[in-house]
Every structure is written in structure tokens, then in C-alpha cells.
Amino acid sequence: MTAASLICFIVASVAAGIVTTSSWTYQDQKHWSPQCQEGRLQSPVALSLGVAKEKEFHHFRLSGYGRVVPAVLKNNGHSAEVRLNISQNERPEISGGGLSGIYQLDHLHFHWQSEHVMEDYRFPLELHLVHYAKDTGSLANAINLPGGVAVFAVMFELSPDDDEEFEPLLTIIEKLQTSVGTPMALQHLVVKHFLPRDLAGFYRYEGSLTTPDCNEGILWTIFTNTIPISANQVKIFEEMQTDHHEVLRKNYRSLQPLNGREVSVKISPIRSSAKTTAASSVLLLTIIILTFSNV
Ligand SMILES: *[C@@H]1O[C@H](CO)[C@@H](O)[C@H](O)[C@H]1NC(C)=O
Ligand SMILES: [Zn+2]
């Protein structure tokens, strides 16, 4: 390559956004694109019952989440992403839950460890299900409109047992650890298996994408119920590599200030809080003692 053609190549690459979109790293968050530094409505944030205001939202209506759909998995160098290989009119949809209108699922991706923290706790894994407002037609159209994008965040909690439903997906992710950009098919994906059974409890706030360009106006829903995952399963994510063949040990963005934003929370009526669990244990113990003392 001559010097002139090299310069042309660099100029063309920058113009096409290749350099700016692929060169960011999680070690270098202070140098992410300007909106990430200057935005006042950024994500992720620290969530707690202390900062949130309790609010009554209608429950979510989900359609198509229980269907078996073909998916395509990819290591994109920053995360493991799962795209549904189906046409627009077959996409799973959400409405309700305080959202106005219908949103369609674009894709899923994972962060290890979690980006949002709850009561100062950082979970081993956080799943993002990225939706766009159906009337915009695509994520690309929706991304710069306030309320155009709605993300569901699901936290995973360590458990001694593997999550069986996770296995087919993890088998493929393991194969993708060292190959950035290579698509691999997963024939049978049921998105509902990656949502907690009880969706009634969640935090809601307005924030941003957590990767450059950190676009704002994103409606966040972070479910308070979690899904169990084993340490071995989490390890498969932690061994993913970047396009420079560096191990991507962590891919979460640092916490961002609320800057006066309101955080709402809906408490699930069937959520067993620590307090009620403790109270019911005492009750159970009392019953056992009474039962046995009568023998
Ligand atoms: C996506 O679906 C199309 C049509 O069914 C199929 O031809 C293609 O191979 C699929 N892509 C992958 C990566 O599996
Ligand atoms: Zn994400």
C-alpha cells in the first residue's frame, strides 16, 4: 500500500465510522464519544428502594415470548449478542408496564458483571432485551427518539445448579469465545426462558444506552426478580475475547449520576422480601415446636 492509498483508507474508515465505533474499550470509558461524557441522563445507575418512589404501573403484556424462534449468536467484541432470525411481523412484542404503545424485540445481549446495582449489590450477569417502538419500524429509526427504545434488564443470581434452559445458548457462546464477528445459529430459542417468571416487580427510569454513543431517551425496566445461574455458566461469559484477543473479563459501564432523575419502583405483590421470609421462618419454627411438644 502506498502512503497516499493508506491515508485514503484511514480517511475512508473514519468517515464510515469504522474506527470510532469499533475502537472503544471497557478499560477506556473516559474516552468514549462526547454524549457519554456530557450527557445528563446516562446509564447505568445505582437502584435501591431508598432512592426510588413507589408507583403503580399496569402489568406488562407480552406476546410471542413463548414461541420457539431461530436465532443467530455473535461475539461482537464487546458482548455476546443474540439476534432473532425472523421477519419484523413475527417479532415478540411488549406493551403495558407504563410504556406508551407497542415495542418489538430487536436483540438480546449480556453484561458480566451487572451494570445496574441494586441495594449496592452487583450481580454476576445482566441480560438486556432491547426493544424499539413498533411504529418506528427499526432500532436504527427509534434510537434518537425520546421513548423510542425500551430495554428490559434481567439480573442473574449465583446458584449451585446450572440453569438447564441456558445450556444450548451457552454451548454456542463457548464456541464463539475466540471468534469475533462469526455468526452461529441457534435453532430453538424461547425468549421467555430468559425472563423471571414474575415480572410484576421492576424499577423504571429514563436513561441511555450503556455503550457508545450512549444515546439518551431510553426507557429502562429493571426487574427485581432474578434468574439463577451457576458459577460455571458465568465463567463462559468471562472467558469471551475481544477482537484483539484480550480476555473480556468484565463488560459493564461504571455507574452514572442520577442528576435529579426520578426512579420509580413497582413492588411485586408476590415478591418475598427478606423481612417476610424471616417472619415466616419464625412462624414455621413455632408451629414445629408446638406440634412436637404436643406429641
Ligand atoms: C436466517 O434465516 C434464513 C432464512 O430462514 C436462513 O437462510 C439463514 O441461514 C439464517 N441465518 C443463520 C445465520 O442461521
Ligand atoms: Zn447492554
Automatic annotation (TrEMBL):
Highest taxon listed in the record's lineage: Eukaryota
UniProt cross-references to SUPFAM superfamilies, sorted A to Z: Carbonic anhydrase
Any Gene Ontology CC annotation: cytoplasm
Record SMART domains: Carb_anhydrase
Reactions catalysed according to its record: hydrogencarbonate + H(+) = CO2 + H2O
Molecular-function annotations in GO: carbonate dehydratase activity; zinc ion binding
Coiled coil regions, renumbered to chain: none
EC number: 4.2.1.1
Xref: CDD domains: alpha_CA
Cofactor requirements of the protein: Zn(2+)
Entry keyword set: Lyase, Metal-binding, Signal, Zinc
Enzyme class: lyase
One Pfam family in the UniProt entry: Carb_anhydrase
Record-linked InterPro entries: CA_dom, CA_dom_sf, Carbonic_anhydrase_a-class, Carbonic_anhydrase_a-class_CS
Domain Alpha-carbonic anhydrase: 22-267
Signal sequence residues: 1-16
Family, per entry: Belongs to the alpha-carbonic anhydrase family.
Chain's role: Reversible hydration of carbon dioxide.
The protein's name in its UniProt record: Carbonic anhydrase
Organism: Exocentrus adspersus
